[in-house]
């Protein structure tokens, strides 16, 4: 194989540091926060799902939101993106007050989240899914939509953007396939590509690694790292601690609706309670070795871990299948 054909070795990318001000503690202020939330509470009957006193999300960094099942991560995601309303609390995104604002408006301001490919979206093609992610479509506006020249031009622009993104995410050959025919990992790539159609400032990813087989893990991680390099902010919920350690610049730990710890991954993961709850006995195995991203000996612990990750992925994938 000539040098030209040799795939480039993955480049280890720098973590962003110096994100906080003062001593690290739950709710610590950030040097340049993109989201600032205060007193956000959401109850369901007698159960308090989210009870966050203060939280700040650093701009142009990758923040992981972790915590055990039922900690309130998804509920907080839903609140921040306007898909749910809090009992009380307020927050700003990029200086805009968002509490009470609907999901559509939140997305227009540049804060988007990925969506799982539902059964209905699976019946659309990959390209049609991408088009759904575009914002400010003229066709949605009844009056402007009556001027065919305007929407045809916009349609062409949207398709061009979709094609560029599909190529980047190596889904261009799947453009006219039904989305349901994609593998778990390709679906995750499509979810991310679709979110990027609206040229967001903040991308929120819901369990980006769930259901992804090791062959696509590296590609997904690289795409997430690319988002930061392109100037975006990433906030993601994830159970895979190895992924969190590998790509997050900052980690926020929730339990029982509250923020119980936060900090750079290495520091948070030294926290005894966090180690016991999430890392188990494999905490020193690097995800990069498991996925082949970094050269290293696949020792017994790594082999065990790869099998464990696979099993967890398939459990999560099964749990997420729509109930009949
Ligand atoms: N629509 C709802 N109605 C009633 N209870 C809810 C609703 N949504 C969430 N809850 C409850 O709120 C709590 C927090 O749930 P949430 O899904 O936010 O946790 P999570 O940290 O995302 O968990 P997981 O990691 O399992 O997805 C749980 O006890 C859950 O049962």
TrEMBL record:
Residues 35-281 form the ABC transporter domain. InterPro entries: AAA+_ATPase, ABC_AA/LPS_Transport, ABC_transporter-like_ATP-bd, ABC_transporter-like_CS, BCA_ABC_TP_C, P-loop_NTPase. This is ABC transporter ATP-binding protein. Residues 12-22 have a biased composition (Basic and acidic residues). It comes from the Bacteria. Residues 1-22 are annotated as: Disordered. SUPFAM superfamilies: P-loop containing nucleoside triphosphate hydrolases. One of its GO terms (molecular function) is ATP binding. The keyword Protein biosynthesis does not apply. Keywords: ATP-binding, Nucleotide-binding, Transport. Pfam families: ABC_tran, BCA_ABC_TP_C.
